[in-house]
Design brief:
Elements (H helix, E strand, L loop, with lengths): L8 H7 L12 H17 L6 E8 L3 H7 L1 H22 L4 E8 L2 E7 L4 H16 L2 E4 L3 E3 L3 E6 L7 H15 L7 E3 L11 H13 L3 E10 L5 E12 L3 E3 L1 H10 L3 H16 L7 E5 L2 H5 L3 H11 L7 E5 L1 H4 L3 H13 L3 E7 L7 H5 L4 E4 L11 H16 L3 E5 L4 H9 L4 E3 L9 H9 L1
Parallel strand pairs: 6-7, 9-11, 11-12, 12-13, 13-14, 14-15, 15-16
Antiparallel strand pairs: 1-3, 1-6, 2-3, 4-5, 8-9, 8-16, 9-10
Length: 445
């Protein structure tokens, strides 16, 4: 099902599709309208809507503006908004979801899908960890770290949007008196542990050993011909108690136990061996981690893995994000150059999701940039979004870099990115992520 940082297309239209000017997220009014719409539809069918909500507040955010200025504060809010939206995009694919900015440093995340209390608790803990990571490259500040508090709720029948907002806000206010308690439930209960971080980390090690980490494939399409030209490999873990855990949180868990390299190799080998069975000329894109790119043994190790799986390196694209590059730009550039020597292509992923460092495009051997879905969402309705798209495509063309549009969800968006010069697109308009057998069927057709 198509999902965005705003409500789904049909729900956004019904609610007026009003965005926060700074972050591009839904507003509080839009969020209330969408929650009411979910509940109304369920009521018309004689059932209770499976709605789950969490209110996220950045601790003492006003002091950021006072200490560093409004520009830095705005930059931090944009970065947090992107982290929440990317988190939701990674974790929810069975139902609708929305992310809204309620004002100041407060955000709402709501999901319209079945979810256990244990899983909602775990998702809140994982999101809090993600938000707490340092935010780099802010306006003349360097890096900044923010600490969130979260209030969680699973609304009961009859609890409408106004009551949901009121109870979450009250719970968050009460949480201020609980030192060391960053997550509280609106039912006034103490935080339900579900499974501790140590338990989940141990579960991951066992899952890797038992080959329980799945890899699914997000098809990519040529904008010129409409044909499937390859896919991006995405890791998934179906935890027996917490449900689906997406790639971002999967690797975050692995990082805490110093098993990123182990997990990364496991996923890459699975992807290369799967892709070796694909029709000829279908390409494979894999995401690489900071630990991968910082290692001096990364290039020979990856090439050896590709050879072991009998796959053509010329059909491989490695995707990197800006945060991967921050640590050691020179080592990153050397490793990427080593990959290109054997025909592996390099894509800069999530372009436009934060404060883009255009210096990367000058220094690094990059073949393509993947526009973040937030760069695509408004191009059919907002002239400024369309102007930004045109500017990026023009710049990329001058540097002989291809542009891939990610998160394309409507035919109108597809037509626009094609007419503006993008080469490839992926998103729910084309196809949702597929298991390997289903992707082979699609690519063979």
């Amino acid at each position: 099902m198509a999902i965005t940082a705003l409500p789904t297309r049909s729900d956004a239209a019904a609610s007026g599709d009003v965005r926060d000017n700074l972050t591009g997220l839904a507003t509080a009014e839009t969020a209330q309208s969408v929650l009411a719409l979910w509940q109304m539809r369920a009521g018309a069918e004689g059932r209770t809507a499976p709605v789950h909500a969490m209110l996220i507040a950045l601790g003492r955010f006003d002091t950021v503006n006072l200490a560093y200025g409004a520009a830095a504060g705005d930059g931090a809010l944009v970065a947090v908004a992107q982290r929440i939206a990317h988190f939701a995009d990674d974790e929810f694919d069975d139902g609708d979801w929305l992310v809204a900015r309620l004002g100041g440093g407060k955000f709402l995340l709501a999901a319209h899908e079945a979810c256990s209390r244990e899983r909602w608790q775990w998702l809140a803990e994982a999101l809090a960890d993600s938000i707490s990571h340092p935010i780099a490259d802010l306006d003349c500040v360097g890096s900044l770290r923010l600490w969130p508090r979260l209030a969680l709720m699973r609304p009961a029948p009859g609890e409408g949007p106004n009551l949901i907002f009121d109870r979450l806000a009250q719970t968050l206010e009460e949480a201020r008196t609980r030192k060391g308690q960053r997550i509280c439930w609106a039912d006034r209960g103490i935080t339900l542990p579900g499974r501790s971080s140590a338990d989940v980390e141990a579960d991951l090690l066992s899952a890797i050993d038992r080959d329980e980490i799945e890899v699914v494939y997000q098809p990519q399409f040529s904008l010129e011909t409409g044909e499937v030209i390859g896919a991006e490999a995405l890791a998934r873990w179906q935890h027996p108690k917490l449900g689906k855990i997406g790639a971002a949180q999967l690797f975050a868990i692995a990082e805490r136990i110093d098993h990123v390299a182990h997990l990364s190799r496991h996923v890459a080998k699975r992807a290369f061996c799967d892709a070796a069975k694909w029709p000829a000329k279908q390409s494979l894109s894999i995401n690489i981690t900071p630990a991968d790119l910082a290692s001096q043994n990364f290039v020979p190790g990856l090439i050896a893995l590709i050879d072991e799986c009998q796959f053509d390196p010329a059909r491989v694209t490695v995707e990197i994000t800006e945060h991967v590059l921050i640590g050691n730009l020179e080592q990153c550039a050397a490793n990427l150059a080593g990959l290109r020597k054997v025909g592996i292509q390099v894509a800069l992923d999530d372009f436009g999701s934060g404060f883009c460092n255009f210096r990367y495009l000058k220094i690094l051997p990059i073949d393509s940039i993947k526009l973040d879905r937030t760069m695509i969402e408004g191009i059919a309705t907002d002239e400024r979004d369309l102007a930004v798209l045109r500017g990026i495509v023009a710049m990329a063309g001058a540097l002989a870099i291809d542009v891939i549009a990610e998160g394309v969800e409507t035919e109108q968006q597809r037509q626009i990115v094609q007419s503006e010069g993008c080469k490839i697109y992926q998103g729910f308009l084309g196809c949702k992520p597929l298991p390997n057998s289903a992707f082979i069927t699609l690519a063979s057709g």
